[in-house]
Amino acid sequence: MIKRLFILLTMISQMAYGDETDQAFAYADTQLRYQLEQVENVRKEKKDWTLMPRCVEKNGRLRMVRQPDWCCGFFSGELWQMYQYSHDPFWREQAVSNTWPVERVKTNDGSHDLGFMVYNSFGKAYELTGEQSYRDVVVQAARTLATRFDQRVGCIRSWSWGTPDRWQFAVIIDNMMNLELLFEASKLTGDRSLYDIAVTHANTTMKNHFRPDGSSYHVVDYNPADGSVIKRITHQGLFDESVWSRGQAWGLYGFTMCYRFTHNPAYLSQAQKIARFWFSQPDMPEDLIPYWDMRDPAIQTGVGPAQNGGCPRDASAAAIIASALYELADYVPDNDAKAYRDHADKILHSLFTSYQPSPRTTQGFLLLHSTGNYPAGDEIDVPINYADYYYLEALNRVRAFKNK
Ligand code: GLY
Q: Which CATH number is 1-48+278-404 given?
């Protein structure tokens, strides 16, 4: 009897979440059509058809960027996510026309963010269409990214700026995300060197970027002469030993993705260790949308620059974590998988019920309350495009799982 009741309750909750996923996509459909109108207005005014929406400024205006801004590929990625869900030619057309303006970045060797820019746009386009032209851009971008790899350090250099005043050879945890481009290009071409670079970068990061509890530093500065660690610091977190939420999210997603391509159990363990650390955060809000930095004293004092006062949240970190957990759940035994999916379901439920602006407002963004670069005073508690991208990706992932 109790078992039957449990099955019934599980079915009801699955139906509720299934409905909610479709409702979230229906909402995204309305919002993104509205965002396309806003984007068109700015492009016409500026006579620049390469501009992409990045965030909403504090004054409510749309901030537009073009390549090589690291956020230039997320908008087309969102449109591809809409096409993946709907198979509607409208979304495909919009995605195509917003993907090609990013192409030029494929030969830009000044940025480690080629994965963010090219994988989520051209990579997604290739995955959904199989068209050769997208594949070629992915491969070219990966070859360009590989030129930033340093054999002595065993990593791809992250930022080119700041050297030598602030660091010698900076590697940031975010850089794990760019390995997806290398792995994919290696798979497409059979070029083993791209795979080896990705694996070496992941191994070096696993060795040097993490604290014993599974949390990560934001920046590790290496000595390029011998590959030794000079210092471990932060740039976008509150202080060097703090827990910058999006950094933890990039690490979780990054090592989960590395396991997808390599089946190396060390990467799976690393991802699970990060998840354990994340689940044990004493100050995690009830709704599982983290504070921008989990060691910000404003969490306790309640005095901070969030819209309604208090410590700002980071919906983008939550969306990245949800998406990563859905993938990680596919690789682990049932008990862990359930815990990961439950956590991710709860994040999506919170985002759907409490973080979406009213339809046809807020420049068409899907989620409120992300924090981009708090120490620089930039993008604090605002909508940002990568939060929307990973939200849609997580929705597609949960839908794929529930349709299995
Ligand atoms: N560099 C990526 C981020 O701000 O998370």
A: 1.50.10.10
